[in-house]
Design goal:
Layout lengths: L1 H74 L5 H8 L9 H7 L2 E8 L6 E8 L9 E8 L5 E5 L32 H7 L4 E3 L3 H10 L3 H5 L2 H37 L1
Antiparallel strand pairs: 1-2, 2-3, 3-4, 4-5
Length: 262
């Protein structure tokens, strides 16, 4: 009898524990469902916010366009503006061979333009004066954003004049503050698409630099202000190191004086 009573008690306790666990699981499921509903609500708000941001960006792209055009008109009156801006840029300067620099002297205009639907893509266009290198007056690279993070890239097929073609540079060692020249021509940036007709890529670092860094304010690089700011930071670091070093020197001198007195 005692054994049967103990078994019944244990079974009762097990059933209570089971019911308690079911209640806990049920409450957990309800909490997760409520949390999911809140997350869905936030996601909807975020989507609406993204749409509004795009609308604002599109609106201001239209406002900026005539100002960019006015800026380009002024730039055309400044000799070698884009060549200087490129050569003063820490990343873009590494992409131009010596022969590229000669071609860039004929570059009259650079334009970055978002599609009307900003999230669909953009284009980068280089406009050239008549030159001895190629027939084209415009070289354009177009980036179209597709689903799944894929970017469709198309580019102008460059019509090189007889005896020209892609110029290749020769790598040279750095001398003083001079940067080494690129081994591959900047214009191979166009031919990557040219050979395949249409190329699919996820990322184009050169395009990102031109679109997001150079294009918004090329005057910064033309004036070489970016390098000057870096130079000022280096000077500050040198001064800090110098002050630290002088303190150490003073301490060492004091120690030597004490030893002489002894």
């Amino acid at each position: 009898m005692g054994a049967d009573k103990g078994k019944k008690q244990k079974l009762g306790e097990a059933e209570q524990a089971k019911n308690g666990a079911e209640n806990i699981d049920g409450e957990l499921v309800l909490s997760i469902e409520k949390l999911q509903e809140i997350q869905d609500e936030l996601e909807k708000i975020n989507e609406e916010a993204s749409e509004k941001v795009l609308e604002v960006e599109q609106k201001y792209n239209e406002i900026r366009k005539p100002v960019y055009d006015k800026r380009n008109d002024v730039i055309k009156s400044i000799p070698d503006f884009w060549l200087t801006a490129f050569m003063s840029h820490p990343a873009l300067s590494e992409l131009l061979t010596e022969e590229d620099q000669k071609i860039f002297k004929h570059l009259s205009d650079l334009e970055v333009e978002d599609f009307k639907d900003v999230k669909s893509g953009y284009s980068i266009t280089f406009k050239f004066n008549p030159n001895p290198y190629f027939e084209d007056t415009k070289l354009t690279k177009i980036f179209t954003f597709l689903e799944d993070g894929i970017t469709k890239i198309t580019a102008t097929s460059i019509k090189w004049k007889e005896g020209m073609g892609i110029p290749n540079g020769v790598a040279e060692e750095k001398k003083g503050n001079k940067r080494s020249h690129a081994e591959e021509s900047f214009f191979s940036w166009f031919t990557g698409s040219e050979h395949k007709g249409v190329m699919f890529e996820i990322h184009d670092e050169v395009a990102d630099i031109i679109k997001d860094d150079l294009w918004p304010n090329p005057l910064t690089y033309f004036n070489n202000e970016a390098d000057e700011e870096d130079g000022m930071e280096d000077d500050d670091d040198d001064e800090e190191k110098g002050s630290d070093g002088s303190e150490d020197d003073d301490d060492e001198q004091d120690d030597e004086d004490e030893e002489d007195e002894d």
